[in-house]
Amino acid sequence: MIPIALQTYTLRDDMEHDFDGTLRYIADIGYRGIEVGGLYQKQPSELAQAAKDLGLSITSNHGALPTAESLNEALDLQTALGSTRLVNGFGPDDVKTVDGCKSAAGKLQAAADLLKPHGITVHVHNHFWEFQPVADGRYPLDVMLAEAPGIFSELDLYWVAYAGADPAEVIARYPSRMELVHVKDGMVGGGYRFKALGTGQVDLPAAIQALDPAVTQWLVVEQDASDGDMRQDVKTSHDYLISHGLASGSKQDAAGPRWPH
User: Fold this and answer.
1) Dihedral (C-alpha) 104, 110, 115, 120: value to the nearest 10 degrees?
2) How high does pLDDT run on average in the chain?
3) What is the three-state SS of 29-85?
4) pTM here?
5) CB 3.0-4.6 Å disulfide test: which of 19, 37, 44, 159 passes with 9?
């Protein structure tokens, strides 16, 4: 089964105030990795060592796309973190038009070309606006993936569903381009509202079962905000994935749930 990681942005306030304790809490729940969403007043090498000491893998880093001028800086950061995946995204104004989507794709592909010789891949993270069709009827994400064949999608399941699209259908169209997936839940009608996994309205089992486990390396749990206790939500989300046999944690019994057939 696909292992579970946590995007550290989910517990960003806790990470700022108690880095070591919060990282230990993530590991103790049973998460097997983290996606870096900030350095929390640590040096990249310090963050990487702290994660390693707790048995947590660095799945990826959410950071700036490099240009030729900033390549060395980006490489230093990725190397210090031990991360071979760089994640980035765009704002709504960047992808309102076909030309805007193509421009965004150009930046993604250029970054991918710069990083590829160093064994680092680029992954575009979406929000709901990548699923608001542009003039030619395509979704912005479709345009970007077509125009930048060297990149991957880090599909955020909640934002796809919130926009009115079907996460499982999107996954089925791009089975080889989803090494990372943001597993997120919430309410999909009216204003967006984030929830622990299994307590919102996203069909998470259908989306996860649409993934190719030979391609997707990590399910990355992310929750932007909580209307309750975020630390409890982080545990609830982990436990939901494990109890439904949808993912692999660090504390599963050898005879525990397996990938559903």
Assistant:
1) 30
2) 95
3) HCCCEEEECCCCCCCHHHHHHHHHHCCCEEEEEECCCCCCCCHHHHHHHHHHHCCCE
4) 0.95
5) 37
Which helix (H) or strand (E) segment holds residue 123: the answer is: strand 121-125
- Whether the Cβ atoms of residue 160 and residue 131 lie closer than 8 Å to each other: yes
CA distances from 231 to 57, 158, 201 (A): 20, 19, 21
Q: What is the pLDDT of residues 145-165, one digit of tens each?
A: 999 999 999 999 999 999 999
pLDDT digits (tens, 9 = 90+) for 47-85: 999 999 999 999 999 999 999 999 999 999 999 999 999
Distances (CA, A) of 136 to 157, 164, 245, 257: 24, 18, 40, 44
Q: How confident is the model at residue 123 (pLDDT cuts 50, 70, 90)?
A: very high
DSSP 162-205: HTT--HHHHHHH-TTS-SEEEE-EEE-SSS-EEE-TTSSS--HH
Domain ranges of the chain: 4-243
Instruction: Kindly indicate whether the domain formed by 4-243 is annotated with CATH number 1.10.10.10.
Output: no
Rounded CA-CA distance 211/206 in Å is 9
Quote the CA–CA distance of 244 and 57 in Å, as a whole number: 23
Strands 193-195 and 185-187: antiparallel
